[in-house]
Fold:
Amino acid sequence: MSDREDILRAVRNNPLTPCARPMVPSFTENYPATPAAFSASLALMGGIWDDHWLARELDIVALTAYIRGLFPAAGVFCSAVNGIAGDKPLDQDTPPGALNEVDVAIVQARFAVAETGSIWLSEEECRVNALGYLAQHLVVLLPIEAILPNLHVAYGRSEFLTARYSVLMSGPSATADIEGVLIRGAQGVRSLRVIGLPAPIGA
Amino acid sequence: MKAIDHVKGSREFLASVSHQEFLDQRLWSLRQLRDAQMKAHPEWQQLRTLASEIKEHTLSHLDHYLEMFERNALANGVKVHWAKDAQAHNRIVHEILADHQVKTLVKSKSMLTEECEMRPYLNERGIEVIETDLGERIQQLDNEMPSHIVVPAVHKLSADVAKVFARTLGTDPDNADPHYLAEQQRQKTRPKILQAEAGMTGCNFAVAETGTVTVCTNEGNADLSANIPALHIVSIGIEKIIPSMTDLAVFIRLLSRSALGSPITQYTSHFRAPRRGGEMHYVLVDNGRSARLAMEDFWYSLKCIRCSACMNTCPVYRRSGGISYGAVYSGPIGAIINPTMDLKKYSTLPFASTLNGSCTQVCPVRINIHEQIYKWRAIVASNNELPFAKKSAMKAAGKILASPVLYRALVDTANAVMPKLPRILVYNSFNAWGEAREIPASPRQSFHHWYQERQRRLAGKTSPADGAADTSTPAAKDKPDE
Amino acid sequence: MKIALFIPCFIDAYFPEVGIATLELLERLGCDVDYPLTQTCCGQPMANSGCQSDAAGCEALFVRNFSDYDHIVAPSASCVHHVREHMDAIDQNYNVRHVRESTYELVDFLHDILQVRDFPWAEFPYKVGLHNSCTALRALGHAAVSEIDTPPFSKPMTLLRGVKDIEFVHPQRPDECCGFGGTFSVTEAPVSAKMGYDKVNDHLSAGADFIVSADMSCLMHQKGCAQRMGANIQFLHIAQVLNGYSPASHKAGSL
Structure:
């Protein structure tokens, strides 16, 4: 008898009365899907909200220069966004380890969640999953129309059925494991900046 | 195997005021942050009920959902293994690693792998294992088990961490700044992550309908461990299954709020299929869970989502420290899970509780923890695992309290004798109560005798006063207090 | 109303004044109170240690003593909770079930059954730290608990507000367990004592002159800690305050 058969048989052999599956409501009444709500949650999680480009004409070249200008001391920029040029080529076959030298990574989120200040990325948005973890800083472009009210709505998205890897990122890497002191940039990015955009960029 | 001596462990922990006070303040503040999240979301109690019902539904159909999970995982290109116990888990993990000539394994926090004692097993077979969670890494380097399932090194002060890191990582022994220490761990762990041939994570929730494994961290270390090496292994307790992504929303909303009072962990990662050029393995582990599922009074403990809210609220945990429980799972949840793994060894844990019930009130999946603790005591007693002194005392008490005559004699004798004893005879090492407290003073007469006197007095009166309460002097104590 | 008084074993032995205050209070409120003389204990100490079979004799005696009454009242939440929820070491015949359903804790009896709110004979111009035992709070529902966000309510405080000039202080952790926990107080003495010291310090810092509770077991433990600490604080059962306790009419010190 394999372990599989043993386990399944043991599990079937329980005296439990089958319990009904509950319907899960979406609770959207209390959760506005606005940039204001999102940015408040993001701030709580230690992320930076940047609304500079919400009041302006979107110009990708200017946006790229703007991002570089935010990190004057940074050396290597790496972009996973079509139209924003980085210093390193990045495609699906770039070995993850090669991204260790990246100072600033730039991605565009597919959607975001106002309730928790989270942005959603998958292998499509990152090209290489490790990009958003090995870089020292992460800049996330977010079309504000893609802000969802809460996690109930987010988890209803079909992207979860097709993405091989996806993540809800809520602020930078953090820990408070040593005497309760909050540290940002524990092992992943030291900062996470979300730049709100009036519309998505890139093809 | 001797039973865990929780009292001894608690004494050791209480001996350091600074350590105990920090632990108490830190975990109480997490409890308060949880309270704030609860108040901010009017649907909180409804979410708890939903979470409980989803888990109960899943557990009562577990074979169905396990098979669904496996089917979808296989269809996604993930390899699925089944391990009936800890030994099987370790053997399977080692086989996968050996097949890929893995010399270094980086992993994120997984209490299941601690439960299986995987690290020493792999170390003995020439595989280096690097914990990437900061708290787990501290404990690994200090050769001590985690003291708390969410913040494994919460019982240590930064000076303790500085000592451990200085000894094992070569950091500055005089620098106990948490920022410095965390940065050092980051710098020293990064090369290991880059060089490792395999990464391992645990699993917070396994979604049956999609074959997705969800891992929640604040550091992003699960993502580092899983997304850099080409090989990703996931250890999954069979009770981690939930039906769908819609259900997942309920748990993600509850988990970090219950654990740390933050809306969500910094990283909530979903692994569904191997990435380009990558390979994924799931190891589904039983290790006593199916046996617990068959226990009518205790299967509810399988609903646990490992949030640690019960530990944070537990006043006993905050004074004895997690190490005193001698198990991977400490505090209230430990008291009801561990006895299923080894009744004798953990027979003392259900008694490390005042049955105050706070744990049950904060549990996001509505496990009736304190009621299960009460029920475990009866199991321990009926399996003859109570300490002899306690067993005898309870037998004697049972006889005396069943007999009005014996009871009366004991009370009257005790109260006649105790006031006459010199202090040294009363307060000594046999008197556990008296170690840190005064015992109650003996009254001149018991309530019983006072009542009998009053009845005699009332019977002796020719015209009882209308409606007036008896105003005879209450029994005064022999010696005034203070 | 005819009621039977159940006086828990440790109150009978060590704190008779609590039993006396309970009896007097109920009589003041017009109850006809019986005290069955062959009562001993409810069985909780043995049952809470897992020794159900050792509790059986005691539980059977309890039922024999009280089966003729429709209202059995006791000044102890944990004892009443045991009777109502856990008195199952004996066969559950009609008498047993009747006794279990008819046993009331004093605060519940005063607040819900007699529905009394005024105690005109009582005056207590002191700062009171109200202590609700964990059983009273989470099992009997005496007051709102901090773990759940419900509108605030407190049956003991409602009753005590019927006492002239009483003032309440607010400790930092009003519903954290004080550490008595029954046999826990001796089998886990170090943690129990630490919890007791913390509780006393919390009330002291809040400025309490008295700690008042519906549970004498908690008070016995906290008082033992306070005495060893040399703390300037006194302890009273709620029955005593509601019955018109005044320090002047009592010997120097507390109970």
